[in-house]
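Quick one, T. Sequence first:
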Amino acid sequence: MANLRVVELKAFVPATDYARSKQFYRDLGFTMASEGGGVAYFHAGTASFLLQDGSAASAEPLVLHLLVENVDDWHRAIREQQIPQRYQVRLGEIRSQPWRMRDFELEDPSGVLWLIAQNVD
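Structure tokens:
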């Protein structure tokens, strides 16, 4: 049986002044847990988001980050349901990221980009 349980959903928040925005969110009480590739992960309690350097995000669509327990099962389920063909959307391949995650991209019919990811130990 496929494991399609969701762990977390985070939004990518664009920042036109990345350094200043990072400090702003720290001053608001958020903790910056990691940073790399122009993206910083912030959290406070159960709330979290990904701050994205605006120079890279300015022309991008809305991006949502969905953390799941098993990225392989999610990718397989989307393929088996023929979601890309039925909705004429793009489904990326699973990638290993340097920040200890495996993820893939799925674009929705309106151009919203979903990064579906799993933490890797």
